[in-house]
Amino acid sequence: MLVRDIMHLGVFTCDVQTSVNETARMMVDNAVHCVVVVDEAGEACGVISDWGLMRAYKNDVKNMTAEDVLEGRTVTVRPNVLISEAIAIMQEKHIHHLVVMSEPPLHRPIGVLAASDIVKEMAKECGAK
């Protein structure tokens, strides 16, 4: 099975100057657990997860932007990568989301693979609904 078979197609994005509150609202309104931060060229430069927003909560979030809560560097994968390889990357990096990137030359985010997507697929394979 490949990443493209179970990833969320489509990405919610913001730029580095988007407010933390606006980012949180985007997650809630769209029932997602992460937003990809993109630069002026539209390339992924970071991810903000619900966990990252929770860590920021103790600070003055009203004055914080996406740039203030970015989680390290973006870990990306192509849609034709095996799920087993994606799992290995997630385990090695201790992350819950991989940004799925289009093939060159564009190199744009086209989807997200979350740990929960993998668990859902496992449940399907076991016959769970």
Please render the helix and strand layout as text.
Blueprint lengths: L2 H4 L1 E2 L3 E2 L5 H11 L3 E5 L5 E6 H7 L9 H4 L6 E2 L5 H11 L3 E5 L7 E6 H11 L4
Parallel strand pairs: 2-3, 5-6
Antiparallel strand pairs: 1-7, 3-4, 6-7
What can you see in these coordinates?
By secondary structure, the protein is an alpha/beta fold. The chain has a single domain (3-125), classed as CBS-domain (Roll), CATH 3.10.580.10. Helix content is 37%, strand content 22%. The protein has six helices and seven strands, in the order H-E-E-H-E-E-H-H-E-H-E-E-H. It has helices at residues 3-6, 20-30, 50-56, 66-69, 83-93, 115-125, and strands at residues 8-9, 13-14, 34-38, 44-49, 76-77, 97-101, 109-114. Strands 1-7-6-5 form a four-stranded mixed sheet.
